[in-house]
Amino acid sequence: MLWPLLFWPRLPKVRRMSSRFRFCNFSIRPALLALTVCSIGQMAWAQADEARAQRIAGGSCFLCHGAKGESTSEVFPRLAGQNAQYIAKQLEAFKSGQRKSSAMADISARLTSDEMLALGKYYEKMEPPREPPKDPALAAVGQYIYHQGNRFSGVPSCASCHGANGEGAANLPRLASQFSGYLFTQLKQFNTRQRTDENQVMHVVVEKMTELEMAAVAEYLSGK
């Protein structure tokens, strides 16, 4: 009997997957798998780098720069929050002798480039201490010079390179929250050529600054 089949509910037609879609589907799966494996691998490498950096920092760096990069004295820079690439760049400079320090030359000589960058990333994640300037009046003068420069002597604005908030950039140092004494010493060393930079930009800047202006800018940045 055929008549029951005439009233049997029709099932919706199942469209066959196009060959193009099947190809894309099978092509995407390996790519997604590779991306997942790559991401896991990168996370593992990052964790290994951080663990290695922590061991190095705990063995050599913390005595001068503090357990959290806060530093133990104005003689030594605060590393907390400093740009990772800048830290690595300075370690390379100590290692090559471009930047002078017998203690840092000895430490950096034992580090690979990967370890230097790992240390930079380790300290970059830390929160720098926040303290108000000790001399607000001097800091106010420094604020003007930092942002406006001194058009009479030709001192340019520091913010044009180091940022409006002293945050710096990849290859330029973060200056905010740094010790005023340390910053003042570095400015004087640039002025006397005891310290240099690749393009000698800092020489051109600081040779036009008075020591009072250097101290004022350093005081302002210490409270940022």
From TrEMBL:
Residues 48-127, 137-224 form the Cytochrome c domain. Pfam families: Cytochrom_C. Heme c 2 binds at C158, C161, H162, M202. InterPro entries: Cyt_c-like_dom, Cyt_c-like_dom_sf, Cytochrome_c4-like, Cytochrome_c_Oxidase_Subunit. One of its GO terms (molecular function) is iron ion binding. Keywords: Electron transport, Heme, Iron, Metal-binding, Periplasm, Transport. The keyword DNA repair does not apply. Gene3D superfamilies: Cytochrome c-like domain (1.10.760.10). Heme c 1 binds at C61, C64, H65, M104. It is found in: Periplasm. The keyword Electron transport applies. Binds 2 heme c groups covalently per subunit. One of its GO terms (cellular component) is periplasmic space. This is Cytochrome c553. It comes from Tepidicella xavieri.
